[in-house]
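Quick start: read one record
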Amino acid sequence: MSVAKVTEISCSSPVSFEDAIKKGIKRADKTLDKVKGAWVSEMKVEVENGEVTGYRVNLKVTFVLKG
């Protein structure tokens, strides 16, 4: 039997939502063992002078606890 845990992280990118998600998963995988998936709980853009300057996502990352 395995037990999973969910942790929430926030990540951003100047390029796209997809890039922010990839960066977030890559970073989470460095710290958390056995990352199994994630879902996007929130998406937001940063705007300056009427232009989109950044993309931010909140991710809920699922990983399996050691045991």
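The two ends are 9 Å apart (CA to CA).
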